[in-house]
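call fold(seq) -> tokens
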Amino acid sequence: MNRNVTEILLESAPVKTRLSFGVNTNIVLKGISNEVRKDKDGNKVKKNCYMTFVQVDPEKNNKILAGYTFSYFNLDDKYVVSSFLHQLNQLTAIGSFIFPDDVSESIDEKILTMIVEKGIEEDIVNETTKDNKAFREVQQEMVNIYVEEGTPYFNNMDNLLQLVVVTSRNGDFLDLPKEDTGFIGKNDAKRKLSVGSKYKRMYLKSLEDETADPDELGEELELEDELTLDDNEGGLDDI
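ret:
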């Protein structure tokens, strides 16, 4: 059936919607970035990893319907080990659904080698740290490895996922759950993902406190080829 010009333009229009609170399906990891970003005042953003997920419509040639960029902060002196492990475990969980087994094993081996070479394995086991700088160096190199090894497998429209998206405590931005696993899975998995009760309570409370509006969390934002990051924790980027 021939399509008119209006239909074609509508299908190719820029994405303007964020992912929704809850379990999002038909998700694709568009990419992981390690670029240094700056805020509106030109100051470096204290983050080291940006992951952009998009939701597509398989019945409309994988047209992108929504998206969001999640990010990780540079390590804070007070929570060096726990924050490092959280990021490592979440990236590992994401990679397990994106990369072939041999690529995942290669990434794991390189990160483990770095941990040993920097002498932080004992700190990780004991959950203490004597050298914050070493942890920060491994954190950044870990992200670099995911970008370098993972790039061929990003934006794979044949690998549809489901992703749990929650909100911050006051509801002003979207986030991934704080748990290290159970937030991502294959789209066609028999066991569907779910949102934990504590996140539901946080979300409902934020609405009651009027700190977040349901429409605001899914607000329409104009997307361009190059987008700046949200002022809060994440946003729409490179979609």
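The longest helix spans residues 80-98.
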